[in-house]
Amino acid sequence: MISDPEFFRSFGFQLEIEPVEPDFLIEATPRRDFLGLEMEVLEVPGHCPGSLCFFSHEGRLLIGGDVLFASGVGRWDLPGGDGELLFRGIKEKLFPLGDDVIVLPGHGPATTIGDERRTNPFVQ
Q1: CB 71 within 8 A of CB 110
Q2: Is the residue at 12 inside a domain?
Q3: What is the CATH number of the domain that holds 29?
Q4: Is residue 106 part of a domain?
Q5: Tens of pLDDT, residues 58-112
Q6: Distances in Å between the alpha carbon of 70 and those of 11, 28, 53, 74, 105?
Q7: What is the pLDDT at residue 1?
């Protein structure tokens, strides 16, 4: 999306972007070291293609970005979004991490996997 100047225009958005090429890509992997912090990288697309979450097994902490929020989920109505893919990814990849896992979303308050599994209206 960031390397194609026509990506957003093809969806009717009149955005001027200066395309850039990433230096490197982060892919799903069971273990990756980020400056001494070991994280599992989970690909959970649906909010946008290639959406990633970062999970610390040791800390029981999920950095969820715009995938899962307290009582909500990331938007899926923007270019490249897919609601069914997002909901399935949350249920299949995030919920099995455990009810005690603390979720730090990209917006809003922290929550837990357990609270979202039990009460989030988007993934019931």
Answers
A1: no
A2: no
A3: 3.60.15.10
A4: yes
A5: 999 999 999 999 999 999 998 889 999 999 999 999 999 999 999 999 999 999 9
A6: 29, 24, 15, 11, 8
A7: 76
Domain containing residue 84: 25-123
Query: What pLDDT score was predicted for residue 12?
Result: 82
Mean pLDDT of the chain: 94
Residue 76 placed within a domain: yes
Q: How many domains does the chain have?
A: 1
Distance CA 32, CA 21 (A): 22
User: What are the Cα distances from residue 31, in Å, to 26, 28, 37?
Assistant: 12, 9, 10
CA distance 117 to 26: 27
Show the tokens assigned to 51: 């959406």
The tokens describing 123, both together, are 């993934």
| 4 found inside a domain | no
Lowest mean pLDDT among 3-12, 20-29, 83-92, 107-116: 3-12
H-assigned helices in 50-94: 83-89
